[in-house]
Every structure is written in C-alpha cells, then in structure tokens.
Amino acid sequence: MPLSTRIMTLKAKKPDKLPVYEPNIPEPTSRAELLKYWIILTLDERTANNVLWLSEGGSKVSRMTTEVCPCLNRPERFEHYPQLMCKESIWASRCYWEVSCSGWVFIGVAYEGAGRKISDGQCGLGENEESWALGWDGSCYDAWHDGISIRVSDMPHCSTIGVYVDQPAGLISFYTVETEESSKKKDVKLIHRFKNPIKEGIVPGFWMGSNSSCLILKKEE
C-alpha cells in the first residue's frame, strides 16, 4: 500500500476551547461533568510503528494484517513496539476523551520525550516511569505504570473507554462508558485511577495487539 494512503486527510473541525484551569475543584464524577473537558485528538502517523495503519482522518488505528507500511524511519517513530501517539499534548489542563476498541489494545499516556527506540529500553506504555496504561487481558483489566501491573478483577469488559487527565493534580483516570438501562443515557464507572506527579507534557497513545483496532470517538452533540 502506498505511503500516501496510510492516512486520509479530512478537513478538521475547529476544536472546542477547554475551560480555564481552576485548582482545588472536585474531580468529575459523572460523564456529563467529564464532557466539559473534552479534547479532540488526532493520531500522529509520524510516531506509528510500521505494522499499524491509520484511517478515518487519523482517528482510527488498526493492526489487522502482517503487511508492513513502507514508512520513513523518523526519530519519533516507535521502532519495535506496535504503538503510536496522538498529536496533542496535555499540559496545565484537564482533558477527557473516549475510544472504542476491539481486540488487544492498551490505552495510555506518555511523556512527550518518552523513549521510542530499541536503544531506549522498555518503551511499552506502562512499562516505564514515563507512561501509564490500561488494557483488557482477556479476563480482567490491567493498569500499568513503571513496569508494575494492578489487576482490576471486579469490572466487566467494555468496548468503550473514557480517559480523564488532570495534569497539575497528577490524576489519570480510566472509565467504562455504557448506557444506563434506567435513564437510557451514557454514564461512566471508574476502572482505575493513577495519582503520580506529571512533570512534563503527556500525550495519549495506544499499544496495539494483532487483529485489533481502536477508534477515537467524536463528542456527541
């Protein structure tokens, strides 16, 4: 497949302006509150390992084939791990986004300067002190940071995951997003929350297993 077809370019909608950061306010507890901090994300094809393929205007990543993309060896590209990052960096703000995944996908964030080459050592999301991630291992959720895994065994699998980051407060929270039977509205349930100092800008990213895909969802109007 030609390099020019790796990512389709579409006219992007002007992003919503995030609220001005106010310290010492309660953490959101509902999806309605989280939506106030919605951020529009775009996958960065320059960071994508060569087994990953982008589509839908840079909002979907897939690993459904063993075919390798003939891409340039850029400094920001993951050399060994089947991962990629988004273009947007989070700093001095609160942000929230949702993704829909199938297969083996770890959703996370990493420092802008986190390693991406074999010479950098462990570069998988959650394998080092510069990244945090959550994924479904087939029987339960695993939350990873600095090479340490926390198993979350009391939460059923959900295909839609929400991620909330409060960078100044050092909070990274992962939620299931499902429609409540009683209200017929979507709401969230907390899977896991990390609380660590976040000392520089962090970027959303994805670690993709074989026969897997992940779509960054649009905000519902």
Automatic annotation (TrEMBL):
Origin species: Triplophysa rosa
Matches recorded under InterPro entries: B30.2/SPRY (IPR001870), B30.2/SPRY_sf (IPR043136), Butyrophylin_SPRY (IPR003879), ConA-like_dom_sf (IPR013320), E3_ubiq-ligase_TRIM/RNF (IPR051051), PRY (IPR006574), SPRY_dom (IPR003877)
Domain (B30.2/SPRY): residue spans on this chain: 21-221
Entry protein name: Tripartite motif-containing protein 16-like
Gene Ontology MF annotations: zinc ion binding
Domain of life: Eukaryota
Alphabetical keyword list: Metal-binding, Zinc, Zinc-finger
GO cellular component: cytoplasm
